Amino acid sequence: MALSVIDLCRDVLPQTNCGDCGYRSCMALAGMVVSEKLSLENCPHLDAETIQRCSRELAAQYSQGKWLKRDMAEDALFWARQGSAAIDIEDLPERIGGKIVERAGQKVLELPYFNDVVHIARQGISKNDGSEITRNEQVFLYIHMARGGSAKPSGNWKSLKEFPNTVSKVVSMKAHVEAPLKEKFSGNPAGLAKRARKIGGIDQTGDYGTADLAFLFQVLPRVPVMLVFWDAEPEDGFEAEVRLLFDQTITGHLDIESIMFLSERLKDLLC
Ligand code: SF4
Q: Per its UniProt record, what PROSITE patterns does this chain match (predicted)?
């Protein structure tokens, strides 16, 4: 018999809401067990026989996907794969760059990605060394494959807020990309420059008048990103400033969610 959150809370857990499991109530732990496969062993007040009996019932309902929280990343990957399923890999270099190479007897797109290379084949995407990339990165690359037009970078840089429909994302960009970079590198532009070079950034500081640093990152062959940094000037009351700039053609290659993804990925690599 399947165990719902209510069944588990009412018939199995002690209902003392003691918090020893790290959750504030027995109901909260029951929710995690049913929807996210958290082990019942997290409640230290259950005997081994009860845990064993319930675990058998839970395993059966997990295998049917009953009451399990949906795996959003898996859904996104399925959707993104579907969107690019009809694409002929040999057409891709013309649109998104990279080159076709032979691997194990089949044609594969070799695509520069940050300071690495990925291989895009009909059955999936892998790193240069054959290892898998994360699901979120796969979604990002499938979206680029499906959306990528043939426009080459124009050299006209824009901040996120200059693209349409980005109001809510501008807030996320400040909170999740610019603020952590400011915090990490305020007073340490040399540290930022060192890190930027290490992940393949090209120094463009001379081209950005008042900026203390400007680095160009070739995220994908058709998708460059510019990071511009002004260091703090405490004596004048100025905090450090960080801005990411995108080529004006970027929305022909990526949707806004994907632009956010690459920005956060760049921040993670720098930090
Ligand atoms: S440790 Fe057990 S009894 Fe205590 S709150 Fe968690 S589930 Fe309930």
A: 4FE4S
Residue with CA closest to ligand 1 atom 7: 26
- 23 Cα: distance to centroid of ligand 1 (angstroms): 7
Whose C-alpha lies nearest to ligand 1, atom 2? 43
- Cβ burial of 130 (10 Å; 0-12, 13-18, 19+) is exposed
184-223: pLDDT as tens digits: 999 999 999 999 999 999 999 988 778 899 999 999 999 9
pLDDT tens-digit readout, 146-188: 887 778 899 999 999 999 888 888 999 999 999 999 999 999 9
CB-based contacts of 216, cutoff 8 Å, min separation 6? 201, 202, 204, 224, 225, 226
Token pair belonging to 183: 């915090």
Query: Cα separation of 208 and 138, whole Å?
Result: 34
> Looking at ligand 1, which residue's alpha carbon is closest to its atom 8?
26
First-last CA distance in the chain: 49
Say if strands 223-230 and 106-113 run parallel, antiparallel, or are unpaired: unpaired
Spell out the domain ranges in the chain: 5-63, 72-147, 157-270
Q: What 8-state DSSP symbol labels residue 251?
A: G
5-63 CATH fold: 3-methyladenine DNA Glycosylase II; Chain A, domain 3 (1.10.15)
- 154: Cα separation from own chain's centroid: 26
